Amino acid sequence: MPEHHIDSIDLKILAELQYDGRMTNHDLSEKVGLSPSPCLRRLRALESSGVIFRYVALVDPITVGLPVTAFIRVRLDQQDDRHLALFEAAVAEFPEVMECYLMTGDADYQLRILVESLGAFEDFLRQKLTRIEGVGQVTTSFALRPVVYKTALPL
Q1: Annotated domain spans of the chain
Q2: Best exposed site among 2, 23, 36, 112 by fewest CB in 10 Å?
Q3: What is the pLDDT of residues 117-147, one digit of tens each?
């Protein structure tokens, strides 16, 4: 990907698109103070350089039957490259896993998962997560409700 220097107009474009990724180029150009052609050129440059790497729809998990959010901290028996790679490849295949981070501190990984029920969580834990080679300890916390949930970066 070509390198892209981000200036203040690019930041305005990114901020607007994080708020409404479906706005027309005409509306975007008005909001950032450019005419449509230069605005579109800048947008395409942000896309081709990988600054903007995907457009998505944000879906309310509760309305689609996924009301249970669990945060899982996983400690591996061994933290060598092979076990890290095995774990990362396995969790990448689980549709329940929304996020997975390699961590410092007490846990090696932190996962955020969405499931339809506590029973589904137990199935995920017993049938998937703890069957990954090298998983030594699992600690879970359940979210009661979101207090802050953002998808836009603080530009």
Answers
A1: 8-48, 62-142
A2: 2
A3: 999 999 999 999 999 999 999 999 999 999 9
CA 12 to chain centre: 22
Q: Quick one: how far is CA 148 from the chain centroid?
A: 15
Which strand ranges, in their side-by-side order, compose the sheet holding 135-142?
A: 97-102, 109-115, 68-76, 135-142
DSSP state of 130: G
Q: At what angle do helices 8-19 and 36-48 cross, to 10 degrees?
A: 80
Give me the CATH code for the 8-48 domain, please: 1.10.10.10
Closest CA to 133 of 77, 66, 67, 55: 77
Classify residue 92 as exposed, middle or buried by CB count within 10 Å of its CB (0-12, 13-18, 19+). Answer: exposed
Reported for 95-102, long-range contacts at CB under 8 A and 24+ positions apart, including other chains, are 96/120, 96/124, 96/128
Please name the amino acid found at residue 65. G
Residue 91 to residue 118: CA distance in whole angstroms: 19
- CA 42/CA 68 separation, integer angstroms: 40
* CATH class of residue range 62-142: alpha beta
